[in-house]
Amino acid sequence: MTLAEATTPTSPPETACRLCKKETNEVGPLRASHIIPRFITKLSKQNGKSLHFKTRQGIRLGQDDWKEHLLCDDCEQLLSEKHESVIKALLFSGKKRPSVDGPLPGARPRGSNDKLALALLSIFWRAIVAEREEYQQVHAPEYIESSLRKWICECRIPPDWDQLVSIKIQELCLHNGLVMPVVVNPFYRKVLSQERFEFVFIFGGYCITIGIPPSAEAFPRNQSLRSKSESIRVKRIDCADVPELKHMLKEMVAWADRHGDKF
């Protein structure tokens, strides 16, 4: 597969923007929108091909940016300027990652938990409405999708948002302490005993877990984003601590061995 083929959206253009709901005859053709912000996938690529994701045929390496025709120009700009910029500033500043070097288990950089939560939920929303195979495990009832869409459009999150959803940020490290910037397609966990779902996004060296409804047991307050807080809690964990990722890594190594590639 060529780079051009890999980065071309596979789904046909929609007739209306998925965010503002305006028809294309009013707002013009929809943009080929990145579900996971482009700056994150760029950071996660090494030697031009380090996106790893699971398909029906197993693990595959590629250069796919996972784009889809979703948004009009105005909504694309809104997501970039109001939401993606928050993620870039607080988690990918380029100066120092939130987690600190050394034996400490994590760090607490300063920043609005409310803004960061909404920015991360904007990625969650995009994955919900996307039709690509890579996002088929991300789904939610219509009332959740419409609520998220309203928050994103208005750039405002309810003051009690952490009573509706939990968000946990963890930094993924290898045994040598280096951050692992791999990207995989998001997946979900269904916790039957608590009748709730966890949606897991892995990109740019982070594992972002979104829980609906929230769980104090799975998302302790000292490890999760909190309403009105300015202290961003990021826990550093070993990649093997995420069972699904550990399994994927084994498949990735096997894939690389079969294809004479390096992982």
- Taken in chain order, the helices and strands follow as HHEHEEEHEHHEEEEEH
Strand order of the largest sheet: 5-10-6-9-8-7
User: What is the total number of structural domains?
Assistant: 1
Strand content: 15-25%
From the alpha-carbon coordinates, what is the Rg to the nearest angstrom? 18 Å
**SS-derived structural category:** alpha+beta
Share of residues in helices: 25-40%
Amino-to-carboxy terminus distance: 19 Å
Low-pLDDT segments, ≥5 res: 1-12, 95-105
Count of helical stretches? 7
Number of strands: 10
Shape, per Cα inertia axes: globular
Largest sheet properties: 6 strands, mixed
How much is the average pLDDT?
A: 81
Give a description of the structure.
- The chain has one domain (3-258).
- Residues 1-12 and 95-105 have low confidence and may be disordered.
- It has helices spanning 3-6, 24-27, 38-43, 73-91, 113-129, 142-154, 243-258, and strands at 31-34, 51-55, 58-62, 67-71, 106-107, 166-173, 184-191, 196-203, 206-212, 234-238.
- The strands form 3 sheets. A 6-stranded mixed sheet has the order 5-10-6-9-8-7, covered by helices on one side.
- The protein is 30% helix and 22% strand.
- It has 7 helices and 10 strands.
- It is of the alpha+beta class and 263 residues long.
- The two termini are 19 Å apart.
- The longest helix has 19 residues, at 73-91.
- The relative contact order is 0.15.
Topology:
Blueprint: H1 3-6, H2 24-27, E1 31-34, H3 38-43, E2 51-55, E3 58-62, E4 67-71, H4 73-91, E5 106-107, H5 113-129, H6 142-154, E6 166-173, E7 184-191, E8 196-203, E9 206-212, E10 234-238, H7 243-258
Helix pairs in contact: 4-5, 5-6
